[in-house]
Amino acid sequence: MWYLDVCRRRGTFIVLFVALAAVGGACAQDNYEIQVYGSETVAPQTTMVELHSNFTVDGSKPLPGSSFAPDGLYPTNHALHETVEITTGINDWSEVGFYIFTSERSGQGIDYVGSHIRPRVRAPDRWHWPVGVSISAEFGYQRPVYATDTWTLELRPIIDKQFGRWYLATNLALDRSFHGQSVPLGVTFAPAGKVSYDFTRVISAGFEYYADYGEFIDPATLHNQQQQIFAVSDLNVSPNWEINFGVGLGPTASTDHLIIKCILGRRFDWSHQHPGTSDSTQ
Amino acid sequence: MSDKTSRREFLAGMGAGVLCAALGDKLLAFADVELDYRLEIAPLRLEIGPKKIVQTVAYNGRVPGPLIRWPENKRIRIQVTNRSDVPEIVHCHGLFTEPGMDGAMEEGSPMIAPGATFLYDFIPRPAGFRWYHTHAFAGRNLKRGTYSGQFGCFYVEGKNDAGAYDQELFLTLHDWNAYMGGGGDSSMDAVYDYGTINDRMFGFADPIRVTENQRVLLHVLNASATVTHWIALSGHEMQVVAMDGNPVPHAATVPAVRVATAERVDVVVKMNRPGVWVLGETRKAFRSAGMGIVVEYANQSGPAQWIEPPATTWDYAQFANAPEGGQKPDIEIPMVFESKFAGHGDFDRWMINGKSFPHTDTIALQQGKRYRLVMTNRSMDQHPIHLHRHTFEVTSLGEKKLGGLQKDVVLIEPQTVSTVDFTANNPGSTLFHCHQQTHMDFGFMTLFAYRR
User: Fold this and answer.
1) Contact in structure between B201 and B290 (CB atoms under 8 Å)
2) Chain B neighbors of A164, CB-CB under 8 A
3) What is the pTM of this model?
4) Less Cβ crowding at N or C end of chain B, within 10 Å?
């Protein structure tokens, strides 16, 4: 998943740390899809369409007299990133998702940023595991003016558990770049986590944590790690709708400092079942 | 072991009883009565399909338990021995028993301790297709209660049973290996790995063998703890002749029958399409989980074929009378069903009139009066509500009025108001509850008590 550019590339940190140390600025990040995955997959004969809207209130800024930030990318400050995610269930333990990333910034219009494909499999319910487990592989391209690495692969093991009113999830992403600055740096480690509480049947709220520790074997210093925490809420208004929104703070130099995010999802059922009849499980 | 007790066994038991009299009154008490059936509750390793083993608890080492077939109004004595490691109880569902013999602890029937024996002694009535099952609490233990294999058919033979059929079969639907699932946007519910008709998954049981032009009477019981099932026989129609053991006013013909938890439907199928067919759940997911059986005509062979029936809605009214002329109730009892959220990772709590059992208010009944239960279902779930020890008449379901349909379980739809009428004609504590195990265990019960 390409939810935080920095999460993809511990190499970005190291290279940019040297390159940007003089200006003391934070390294760039692209917040296109900010989401902690649960282990559930989309049901077969069902498609989930999601729109991720992320606005960076306080992010990287352009160098004086330039359109680009110190990292050579378009700045994220006051950028609105819209991502369309379309996920279709294959069977009761797998799905495939497709992403289209865009960026909009005053004076730049709407730009196509890139696309990813993400198959995912999970431990089927019939295995009766005590926690939900799935793993996704996300592969894709993003334009070089928006990312220092253009071709990337991510493997994301996902573990979650719902018990009573509490929900816990962790995503332990391992990223690899195939073209760009991070190629020599190998695999990077970008964990994320979520804890939330069901206040009512409709309203759940909690915190989401996103990080990039840099190289998996040799993590970056805290100053150069990506660290972000979001206060989030999920509104469970209908099984067919997914609504999540939150506000995130990035305390380290390498992180966009303030982001507002929103996910709006709609589930479409292609099974042509008639609810309440003999051919429907609803 | 033999389920029915022969005269010889009875006399042998008498002798053993004399020999063992010194051991106590309890043994003697069971030795000096003639037993009609014996049930032994014990753990069972049940092979429901190839390499599909479920660990459960059952009656007499089989699923379903032995068919109890007994004349109406003839006293029956059923000895139940509990060889499991937890207290158990056996409820005879749909029979007009006394509270102490009904097999519901809430009404006053005793739990049977591990290793203990209890004698159920009553006069079975009314005639028709009843059943027996455990009435034990399961809670979050999805191996206990009606999740287990503790169920069996109880057929009370009436004097006027015309027997207008050539073959009679009892089919029990059951779901196995329950676990807590769902969650997400809703609350948890019980979901299952497997489904069976009787004790076997599809393809693992002997076929039902029929001949062309036979009229086959199917007694279908949904013994699932929580799931409403739809059943169809490929390419055949089913004439519904009775529900919950009671003849229906209009024996309508349908392509598929819906059977809610604890409901029974008696259907007659005219075998008029030779071939090898699947009789099973109409929904592929449930058929794939095993809920189906082969029906094979004489001189026919080949793999069993499934023909999708047309999408069918279930309307109780098609089997009922028009509502005109129905008896008016003396007293209306309002009942509001609501759920209380306990987290997306837990079962909901359930309330009747704002209270969960055992804190619900006991409702007083006066013998001879006719009562109308006005049930407002404010939840988003269906509820197969069940009244013990009585039969009720379904008088309205949502906006639809109906009459003459006598049942002991009826499925109440979400966000509707429905009514059933019954006459208080069987004194004693009477339990009312949703038959979904996840609902009754989490508060969806209340008691009626007759005024002295």
Assistant:
1) yes
2) 342-343, 345-346
3) 0.88
4) C
